[in-house]
Predict the structure.
Amino acid sequence: MARDPDQNGFAQFALPHLDAAFNLARWLTRDDHLAEDLVQEAYLRAFKFFDGFRGGDGKAWVLAIVRNTFFTLRKRNSSAHLHEPFDDEVHDRPVEHGTHGDDPQALLVRNADGQTVRQALEALPEEFREVLVLREIEELPYKDIATIAKVPIGTVMSRLARARKLLRRQMECANEER
């Protein structure tokens, strides 16, 4: 059943996901103003293709459009500040001490303030930051993250495990510097 994008159905469908869309956009771009522009472009695209939406999780659909818009715009603009390559030597050092068994959320609650958390998340490579935000902040299931990121569920799980490990390391380093 095709929807008429001129009706207020799109607004009722998409607006509840605006905060999640902005949140993902902010973490992808690391800039509030770029995130606003990204969400605006993504919502224009979502509106344009709303009649093709065939049901399912609306939040996942909107976030997938935000993500795809980000990569399309980044490729088009070739903005170096929107991309940071993953460096195994820098990001995959063994943890020398700390709480190996703690999950990142427990570590964050115990040891960090909001600014430290934000800086640690921003320091993560894009592909890890993305899955961590979608899972831990937006609370999406692995299946939806896999759909949004266009990767197998196993890849989502491995990226999430590495993201948590890297975040833990970032938080430990930040705490050592205090």
Summary: DSSP finds ten helices and no strands in the chain. Residues 104 and 165 are 8 Å apart (CA to CA).
